[in-house]
């Protein structure tokens, strides 16, 4: 076990985003962290329905719920019109920023899948969410047409490998990815949990990450850099991130 596997803070990717400091709420999951190229702002990334511009985000750290930062995207009216959007929370918590700066080079790189969505059919993916932790499944439908994600984002349907639950309440926004030896391939973000589509069993609707990222960059004239998975691929896995 190398140093990168010894301590993974609770505010890693895969942990919960809360919308209040106390009490329970649905919230969602941090998919990844990234940086806005023009301003160097560090942002926590999730799907657009999890948290919207102006809302404060909280997350677990040690035994307490701490403020992570304030959402800077999407405005609620933008998300209503274009559901294929990212949530971005500008990270103001200094402990999180310190961890990200120190851990950037210690974990696997992230490659965002930008190829044809149809080519993902039957691919095996994993996810780590704050609701169901680590689950593994298969893409059972690509280019899903439900109207839920609008015209600018491909929908991808995932089924748990044993036809169980791939994601549920609390997992919204979590990253579905393909593990690799030296990097992970980011595929999509959890959008709607099981049971949302008639005749599709326990499948989960996800939004293609490349499309969500592209939509933000085009509409905001801004580039998001995602350099590391910050230990996401270690969650529920005893392997070193360097293996």
UniProtKB/TrEMBL annotation:
The species this protein was found in: Pinctada imbricata
Protein name per Swiss-Prot or TrEMBL: Uncharacterized protein
Organism lineage: Eukaryota, Metazoa, Spiralia, Lophotrochozoa, Mollusca
